[in-house]
Design goal:
It is built from 9 helices and 13 strands. It has about 280 residues and is α/β, with parallel strands linked by helices. The protein folds into 2 domains: about 100 residues, 2-Layer Sandwich (Beta-Lactamase), CATH 3.30.450; about 170 residues, P-loop containing nucleotide triphosphate hydrolases (Rossmann fold). The strands form 2 sheets. Strands 9-8-10-11-7-12-13 form a 7-stranded mixed β-sheet, with helices on both faces. Helix 6 runs parallel beside helix 7. The longest helix is centred in the middle third of the chain and has 16 residues.
């Protein structure tokens, strides 16, 4: 049975970030901190999950093959409800699905921080000399997305800039305020992250946000962006700064010292049980 509409209706009740998990042999549950709340009092079968996942996928504009494969992530927006990110994984013939709802409105940066005084750390990172890269790292992609979008929204409302955002699945949609905001979705608007970075340079942005670069070509594009004088914000998933730098050294090899030359700050994000974020340099 297809439970997509019931799940969307449940998630659309409140304007907040929320997450529902689907796994065969259990009812759909919402994860709230360390607690679970039953969404629909029905035990799901693998067929239920596949039917529900297929309905979610039908909302997506796709380029290229329609084959979803055994794992992946996609995103879409629903009028008056928000944006949804769907993560899925197939194991031994059964799908696990995470449905995450991002509200339309970007949260206030102050509301995300466990210590509001740490706004000074963010301001310091963004006031570094132009032509630099600021890396934000943490173990949760959704925490990174909310934090970076809240940071960019704060800039959008207070400064006159051209802001260029490049993300595989857009987490939020931003409106122009004091700044001009251009958002490009990899896989929908443009084929690759590398091409998106190169194309973005023609716009001469003041601020660039790139989510989860991986290849040497992508990092070379970030260095080119920094050379133009743009401030480049990068979010990367990793357990800590030391592990991240070790991984980057292996990926970039001879280009690692040059990349480090452009890195102005590296800030790690952690989340407490209440879902609030702490920052560490």
């Amino acid at each position: 049975m297809n439970y997509a509409q019931k799940i969307l209706a449940y998630l659309g009740d409140e304007d907040r970030f929320s997450q529902v998990l689907l796994i065969a042999g259990a009812p759909p549950v919402e994860k709230i901190g360390t607690q679970f709340r039953i969404v629909i009092n029905t035990v799901l079968t693998p067929e239920d999950i596949r039917d529900t996942l297929a309905t979610f996928a039908s909302h997506v504009r796709r380029s290229g093959s329609s084959d979803m494969g055994k794992q992946g992530v996609f995103a879409f927006g629903m009028p008056n409800q928000g944006r949804f990110k769907i993560y899925y994984l197939t194991q031994r013939g059964s799908d696990f699905v995470s449905i995450q709802r991002m509200p339309f409105d970007v949260p206030q940066l102050e509301s995300l921080l466990a210590q509001p005084a740490q706004l000074a750390l963010v301001d310091d990172a963004l006031s570094q000399p132009a032509g630099g890269i600021v890396i934000f790292t943490g173990t949760s992609p959704d925490t990174l997305a909310r934090f970076l979008y809240a940071t960019i929204a704060r800039i959008n409302g207070t400064k006159n800039m051209v802001i260029y955002i490049l993300e595989q699945n857009l987490s939020f949609l931003l409106k122009h305020q004091n700044s001009i905001v251009i958002q490009v979705e990899v896989g929908t608007d443009i084929p690759t992250l590398t091409e998106g970075i190169c194309n973005g340079l023609f716009l001469a942005p003041d601020l660039i946000y790139v989510s989860s670069p991986k290849t040497p070509e992508e990092f070379a594009g970030l260095m080119c962006a920094a050379q133009t004088g743009a401030t480049v914000l990068v979010s990367m998933i990793d357990i800590n700064e030391q592990h991240l730098l070790s991984d980057l050294e292996k990926r970039l090899q001879g280009d690692f010292p040059l990349f480090c030359h452009y890195v102005r700050k590296t800030i790690s994000l952690s989340v407490n049980q209440a879902g609030l974020i702490s920052l560490a340099e």
